[in-house]
Amino acid sequence: MTELEPHYAALPLEERVPIARQPVHAILDNIRSAFNVGSIFRTSDAGAVAHLHLCGMCAHPPHVKLEKTALGAFEYVPWTYHERTKDAVAAVRVQGVPVIAIEVTEDAIPLPDFAWPQPVAIMFGNEVTGIHPRNLARCDAIVRIPMHGYKNSINVATAYGIVLYHILQDWQGRTE
Predict the structure, then answer these.
(1) What is the pLDDT along the chain (176 residues), one digit of tens a residue?
(2) N or C: which end of the chain has fewer CB within 10 A?
C-alpha cells in the first residue's frame, strides 16, 4: 500500500477489491467465548478463509465482545450461524468438503503427519468440553496439535491460527 492508496477500512464494502479465498471452511462447535470467536474471525480474514460456520452457543454478529476482538473482520469473512453443528457439517458436505476435527483423542493424527485435503473444513470445539462426541463422529479424521508441556491443549483461537497456517503452508509446499 502506498501513501496514495486508501486503507481498506476507508473504502465502502462495494468498492473493495474481492480477494481470492482459500478453500478452508471452519466449523466452530459451541465456542463459549465471544472473544475467541472474534479472534478466529480476525485470523480467518488474515488467512482468507472461505467460510466460518458458527454453531450453537457461538457468539455471532452483532455482538459487542466479538466485535472487540474481530475489529471488523466479520464484515469481510463470509459466515453463517447454525443452531446445530450437524447442519454446518451437512452444508459443507453438500459441497464435497471433508470435515477434519481438531481434538485431543487417543487415535488423533499428529498435525505434522496429516496430509490436508483441498478443500477442507476444520472443526474446533468448546474450550472446556471440546467437540461434542456426536459431532466428532461426523468427521472424516481427527488431528491433534502435539503438546510438549503439562497441559494437553491450548486456547482454541491460538489452536485455530496454528492449524490454519499449517494447512496453508502444507498446500503451498505441495505446489512449489
Answers:
(1) 445 445 555 667 677 778 899 999 999 999 999 899 998 999 999 899 999 999 999 887 766 666 666 555 567 778 899 999 999 999 999 999 999 999 999 999 999 999 999 999 999 999 999 999 999 999 999 999 999 998 888 999 999 999 999 999 999 876 55
(2) C
Q: What is the CATH number of the domain that holds 171?
A: 3.40.1280.10
Q: Residue 67 belongs to what domain range?
A: 22-175
Number of domains within the chain: 1
